[in-house]
User: Fold these one by one.
Assistant:
Number 1:
Amino acid sequence: MNVALFVTCLTDTFFPRAGEAVVRVLRHYGCQVSFPAAQTCCGQPAYNSGFHNEARRLAAHLVDVFTAHPCDCIVTPSASCAAMVQHHGPELLAGDPHRAAAAQAVAGRTFEFGRFLRERLQVDIAAALQWREPVTFHYPCHARDSYSPAELQAWLTPPLCGSTNSGAPLRLPLHVDQCCGFGGLFSVDYPEVSGAMLAEKLDGLAATGARLVVCNEAACALQLAGGAHRRGLPLRFQHLAECLAEALGLMEPEA
Amino acid sequence: MTPDPAAGASHGTVDPAFVQFVAQLQPPPANDTPLPQQPLDELRALAPDSDLVQRFTAAATEGGWQVHGATATTLAEVIAGILPPPDAGHLVLEPLSASALDDERAAALQNLLTARGYDLRRGHDDPTLFDSAAAITGVRAAIAENGMIVVHSGPQTARGMSLIPPIHVAIIATHQIMADLFDYFATLAPPLPTNITFITGPSKTADIEGVLVTGIHGPRTVHAVLVT
Amino acid sequence: MSGGLQDRMAAATRDKRVIGAIRLATWRKVEKRETALASLPHADDLRARAAQIRRHTIEHLPRYLGQFAERVAAAGGHVHFAANAAVACQIITKLAAARTLRLAVKSKSMTSEEIHLNAALEAQGVQVVETDLGEFIVQIDRDRPSHIITPIIHKDRKQVAEAMVRELGCEYSEDPQVLSMIARHHLRDIFRRCDLGISGVNFGIAESGTLCLITNEGNGRLTTTRPRVHVALMGIEKVIPRLTDLPVFLKLISRASGGQAMSVYTTLITGPRKPSDRDGPEELHVVIMDNGRSGILNGPAAEVLNCIRCGACLNACPVYRNTGGHAYDSVYPGPIGALITPLLFGPAHAELPRASSLCGACKVACPVNIDIPALLVRLRHLSRGQQPWSKRLLMQLWSRAMSSPTLYRWGQYLLRGIVADDGTGWATRGPGPLGAWTTQRDLLRPAARSFRERWREELRDDA
């Protein structure tokens, strides 16, 4: 299958290792991966702040880039950017005679990474994973269209018996779908509120005792890792793709 | 304009300004949402053939009712056993023949309570209700799904009976138990009584730090006596 | 104006005592809601049904309002219309004056809070007593409710005890049971003497002209039983078509509110006391109030009128949980309040929809499936012109830059250059607008090599 990677601006800039892991895992499962170099941002920060004209400009650019690029599917490590492309792109471009249909087509071909592995490649994620240490997870709020908290939990729970993959347990945070407090511009417009939400969330993650947090969203990871670093909490944040790439021997464990 | 209640004896009034206001509201859109069809059988919480007495008892107990079983012959004794001693104050008693009891049983209950020294009253006003020790009423229906009773106001029944005395004893014939809230609403037809009240337990509040307190305004203790 | 909300919310997060109490209370309610809905068969279908009934009703509001009024009158009630808060207060104060009513008891009603009814009645010499325990404490402590269902969620028992000792002259106790019984005793006396009862309305049933009132304490029943006049105040959106629609909502509303299968008392009132009734008010007046609602009706956020005021979205909201209700400066706080407050009370509150991370917990919680996050974004869009010019300009420039691959790359380099590296890979003081970020958390330094550099140099097939 020909897959075009939509890496997203935050993964590109802050978490390139997650992007690399996505490429390696997709190749491992037999995909041809390409990266349209003209891609930038999906426009979500502008859309969520109500600046829809500005968001439309970016949505149009994204649709143009991926329409010009032949592929079967577009895969992205971010569920929130996937939701932006799948729902709000077509909504913003509905009145654009040159792009309305293309926006629908791009939306239909776009998948969040985990969803893509499960649905299009029929990969048993849980069976492929292996934990060397206790692990917990953060459920990104905007993943609801791509996977539920229960699905994410199932993906991260390797079969315990009759498998070489059984390992350290998954430790559930007390409130599995609690927001990290990022919220785009909200995090700088309402820093104290965002910070209070972050503190509450980090307390819950730290209480699990696990040091590795699976976090499939660069924006949440930026917020959570920044908060953990500020407080000196020994938490590490990894994208599901990085966990898989390490378990499959495609990447060296992170130093 | 304030309508004058003396103008219409039983029919009320509608402010013409309201009629005007409604008339200028926008009509429904062309692609409107239809009102869902009924009945709602596929949304029932309980199958009609569930064990209703068992389910009612479990749900009512959870809601804070003290549930007692009785037969027509033991009813009077069961109720006498629940009540505070006669010197705690007078009882208010609804004529029960309409619901759970036939005339004979109602008379037997009354006779026993009188013989035990209880002061039985039929009043519905202050101070009869406010100074009473307990109220004994029948019910219109009981709902197994969530362990609640339904009382109607009417010529025999004041609203205050199940509300003002500190103890409420509700007598429920087991055949009055319906499975689902939908079943009860299916029986409602105009003209409706002035007041229908569903009661799931003792009066409750958790306003102070979420701590549950019973008897804040209504009865603190509620007994459901199931008569088979 | 926007600075006002930001400052209030920032200050609210620092009140550890209040926030601690609210966090505890809201999480407890969230867990109870989840448990209650998980044990309700067909919960999702019921929610879809409830949403459909609400949508249908709001679309056909003229028909159902007309029918409702006609049936209220047929049952002997009087229907009044209040176009706004002032008229609503005037109608009720006039009713009280014409009948020389002196002592009013109130059952909890957010609509009456909305119009500041108590002050209007008291100005006319009518004593008004709130009878819901939480509202009673708010009243004697001269405070404001901070939650639409749990008015004193922000108070602890010490504060309640202090207010009751001061105002009622009772003995000090921190036992909620003791405090509640003192309130009961005090309010019982009021209920024996009152002559006017004022309530809200949870649902108005069009086909029968019936008012549905839901309470746990029984104060709603006393308020609508003891006085000789009952005035019910309702917003125009509160109607539902049929009696048989009501159980769909009754199965959901208390579960959503706080995990009860149903509240202790659900009362259906049809008309005033009949000659054959043993008790109850002789007069029933239903004041139907617009106060800005009809303006929402045909607008882009009409869906907010589907709200049944269960409070579930407040409990679920992490912003509410970490700021409390008062920071919203509205009788309607939380996610639904962030929508209806600017819609009802105007552009002074336009900043409210921005105080959200759009996490969607409210949408998950809403028993009538209102898409609150989508509506928040819509209101943000409509008020974007009120944003500071600097932000609007920045958005313009940013979106232009980001739609050019070259400028996007330069932006990456620039960011890498300006986020100072002290050797840890983290910045503790962000430059420029990123300074707000680093008040709360450290800023991860952009990677030394971006993904696109890695791709070009080693990841691509032909690299």
Number 2:
Amino acid sequence: MAFRLKLVPEKTNFDFFKHQVATFGFSVVMVLASIVLVLTMGLNLGIDFRGGTTIRTEADQTEPVDIGAYRSAIAPLGLGDVLITQVYDPNFRADQKVVTIRIQAQDGQEAISPETQAKVLDSLKTVNKDIKIVATESIGPKVSGELIWTAIWSVLAAVAAILVYIWLRFEWQFSVGAVAALIHDVTVTVGIFALFQIKFDLSIIAALLTILGYSINDTVVVFDRLRENLVKYKKMPLREVMNLSVNETLSRTVMTSGTTLLALISLLVLGGDVIRNFVFAMTWGVIVGTYSSVYVAKNIVLFIGLDRNKEKKDPSEKFFDKTDVATD
Amino acid sequence: MLHISLWKRVLILIVVVIGLVFAAPNIFYNRVEGHNDAVAAAAKGQALTPDQQAARAGWPDWLPSDIVNLGLDLRGGAQLLAEVNVDEVYKARVDALWPEFRKALAAERGTLGSIRRLNADPGVLRIQIGNADQIAEAQKIAETLNNPVSSLTGVGQKTLAITTQGNQLIVQLSDAEKAATDDRTMQQSLEIVRRRIDAAGTREPTIVREGSDRILIQVPGASSAQEIKQLIGTTAKLTFNSVIGTSSNPNEAVGSDQEILPSADQKGLYYILDSVPVVTGEDLTDARPDTDQNGYPAVAFRFNASAARTFGDYTQNNIGKPFAIVLDKKVISAPTIQSHIAGGSGIITGRFTVKEATDLALLLRAGALPASMNFLEERTIGPELGADSIAAGKMAAAVGAVLVVVFMIASYGTFGVFASLALGINIALIFAIMSAIGGTLTLPGIAGIVLTMGTAVDANVLVFERIREELRNQQKAKAARAIELGYERAMSAIIDANVTTFLTAVILFVLGAGPVRGFAVTFLIGIITSVFTAIWVTRLFVSLWFARRRPRELVL
């Protein structure tokens, strides 16, 4: 017998509905909390959505960065709201000090003018004459406004496409359950961004869409097994069939989430700070997505109830019916 | 299911081998890139330097040489999103119509009465005629100047929309003509931007139209967006106009056909010019840096045949009078015409530095942008940051891959080895397809590949778990049967799961911009290749292994 790593025992028999009220309640609370967080704290929108300029500077120095000095160097330029943050990354050299400077969109101009950019650099050189600008991004209010709408549309379009596909392949109850799980995942992820005030930009939208894809992937695998078991165990109550299906697919769920998380975590740690927020969103999304496919999607389906026999009139007799089940 | 027919095996192997061969150039990235640059230079007819010849020899010609383009975030470079003010062209077109209309209407002054142009919005020509009751007649005359639109979509429509209001004729471009004009303006702008950037000599810039009135410009290796902006942002509209007089008052009242423009180098000096130019920069066939008779930098130019004739006639009739050389609404010099300039060549002087003369010559050669541009978005990524990102991405991908492989082998043993091999082939196929379609790898694209590594094993996991189940459920089941059933039964879950992921990836691609799209491309390709490798490549391995070993009992 060869050694086998088994994270999940061969045969599991967890009752995933045992703590139904608690888990579902937890999800509802998380979603509501996220909405409240987004509404009260707001999102830390990046320049993609708000317009403005970010400048990334780099300086070779061993002593710590004095953000205050940066701020007072730039203040006389009168650029309005300026946000200065130091960037940390395990991959940086010991003497590599990186700072991002975010400047609000300037009145009456789309992208930042060359003069302003030169002035910023000149001012910073008074702090450390070796400061270099390694990247700048400047986005006008016109484009940022459009990007917000494109982002919202793309998330809605993805949800709609998934809704239709699941509905065509399964039953409408499944698609409602799947979409509820998706909305759960997206809301909770956006909530985390509001809570920690992590920069929310275009790449996060890409991450959200990827989470949608990943989460639905998980949900579909469970649903697929559920559909199969519904045919196989015609008389078993829906709740038990669901439990059985989740148990049967549990080892797969854990394996896939495991490999994906391994890959994402190495990216999170080693991939550099430029995409850290993006990877963070995905890592969080994979965790939430796995949870939601086990605890959210099918609970909704159970809640709505499946019409396992469309011809039968009396619902009380449905588990004793001999005719075909209403799945394909 | 376990047995795969010979031709299928061959087909799978061929796909894998082709994939590996086409992915291979990416391993020798710098060498292949040097080779490709040298080949491109040779194709342009340039003589190769010894360095370039060495670079060319660094990769054999007969091997595939397509490599994945690195996005600006990995290579460093500048990106600009420019909006072309297409409306400006309407104004110029309508203004140019006025002399024509005046002439046609003035010929009938007897019936129409006096003819006057009124102030109106840009792009609208309002003409007042003296006798209001003759407005229908005026419209009839105006309509004779209206031509059919010369575009495919505008067939049967006229270029102008001519309406009347009281005693006024209102002339503007028709919607069909506006659309046709917008299209021409964009084409011309794209071409001019391309020529100006090409002339500056950088590696393959990307210059594409986005939407109805935008141009996306990406120049790898450019040190700043400003540099490109300065190069393309200058309109370089050159005209030669008659000088009517000079003034020190910028607000001096001038005639309706005249304009007052500042001198470029003498503060407080303004020229009153005939607003209809004698010739324009569009008629230039050549412009190059030169020196004037005093040895100062200047720009020598040459006109095309018809402009040369016009210019010749004009100079002959106006000897001793000044004429103005106007660049972007500034008079850069106003020499006095010394003699008849035949042949259409001349020289522009204007106290330039050598660099200014060189730049002006470049701008004139490339032609004028038909309309000005606003820059909506600018990004510059330094090459060092790009190199750091590549290094970090490579490291993360390598560690991620090792972890996934270890995890898979620990969980599934031999089958885990097959899945890992398939994963390697999968990544090679992604690179092969990206290279072949000229896709661009961005930093989020690397993340897409890393994510694919995580999810690519999913289809295998589905199959393996299913095989395990079949082995458990039917204790006596033969190994072969269990494997067959495993593949069979996992199929619907694999398809459903991947189709839904595919849908979101397509939406990402269609609606995404910039780096998001880069991510979507790798992710989309990754989904396709992972389904192929999971379903066919691992199955091929499993069936080959099974045929050799013939295990009585399967341990999974």
